[in-house]
Amino acid sequence: MSAQSTPERPDPLKVGIHDADLDGLTIQREEHFAKRSPARSGQWRWLLLILLFAGAVGAWRTGLIDQTPSVEVTAVVRMAAGGSSGLAATGYVVAQRQASIASKGTGRMEYLGVKVGDRVKEGDVIARLEHTDMDALLQQARAKLEVARAQLVTARPELQEATLNFDRMKTLFEQSFATQSEFDMAGARLRRAAGAVKSAEAAVAAAEAERQSAEVQVESTNVRAPFDGTVVKKFAEVGEVVAPMAASTLSRGSVVAIADMNSVMVDAEVSESMIHRVQAGQPAEIQLDSVPDHRYRGEVSQVMPIADRAKATILTRVRFLDLDERVRPELSAKVTFGAKPGSADEGGESWGVPSTAVVTRAGRPVVLLVRNGAIVETDVQPGSPVGSLTPVRGTLTQSDEVVAAPSESLRSGTSVTVLRRPS
């Protein structure tokens, strides 16, 4: 009997197991992360942007980020045409009021109360000489005056008594109760008393004059400032002998030199062939070598009536209209003379600025200057453009800088950051 063959079971390794329940339990890891990862990364990106924006706004509000606008500026240019005679001259700053101060008397200096650069007032004691001997003379003169006054006090009662005695003798003589001899003696006594009083009065006057002389000698040992000024030089030191007329190298003639800084002018020499272009009252511009970035306004104060035959020049004096502490005597200076008063060229300074710098504010032409880091609106009178520049007239100076192309948001007082345009 043939054994019944049993059916062969399939090999689970060769036949794939497929079960619906098992298929449902499968975790699709790659698909899950593929769907959620982009959304989540986008949220983080937006959150980061929001945080950065909030931080920037906070920094701007707290001033950590500079809020001042930046402006491009350029220096003004002096225009050659109009307002200038084209004449220039060189010279030096000179104090018109200056003096070397010396003592009236001779002696050894015991006190010096100033140094170079100090300012003094009129009447201030600058220095003092030894005056012990002068003090003794003054005391002696005062004593003599007291003696003379005492003698006068004694002589006056004697005169009064002599006057009364003479009047009595005169009455008695007229009534024949006194002799001629007695009357003559009374008259002589009266004349002697009157002479004594006059002599005492003269002695008092002489003693008073002697006292005043001694006081003057004592005062002569004080060296005082004759006017308000600044000490510019010192010639003597404490312990040196000072004399009004120094006759040897061992004595000093002057103690200090002072100058009135408010009286400084520029002495400039103009060729005699050009002097017809200069007159008193003419505007001028002064440039000092020591202050190269500033121009001082000036005015011709005087044209000397005599020429220098050796140099063929005439001296002119130009005073400062805007004097400051940087102007010192003996500085070299250059003077540019403006148009003569009443001439066709007269009309004020002319400055060149970029054509875009002139704007209209409130119906008037202005330029915007930058001074001390802030905007300053300045009224101007613009002329016809010359190339890229527009000539303007106004209260400008050589050191001013204008905003090349101002925006409507800029106003006077606005703080700005300066960007300089190369000239």
**Proportion in β-strands:** 25-35%
Query: Which structural class is indicated by helix and strand composition?
Result: alpha+beta
Described by strand count, sense and barrel closure, the largest sheet is:
6 strands, antiparallel, barrel
Topology pattern, helix = H, strand = E: HHEEEEEEEHHEEEEEEEEEEEEEEEEEE
- Helical proportion? 25-40%
Sequence stretches where pLDDT stays below 50 over 5 or more residues: 1-6, 12-17, 30-35
Number of helices, where a helix is a run of at least 4 consecutive DSSP H or I residues: 4
How would you briefly describe this protein structure?
The protein is α+β, with helices and mostly antiparallel strands and 423 residues long. The chain has 4 helices and 25 strands.
List keywords for this structure.
five-stranded mixed beta sheet; six-stranded antiparallel barrel; 4 domains; conserved putative lor/sdh protein from methanococcus maripaludis s2 fold; 423 residues; Elongation Factor Tu (Ef-tu), domain 3; 31% strand; OB fold (Dihydrolipoamide Acetyltransferase, E2P); elongated; alpha+beta
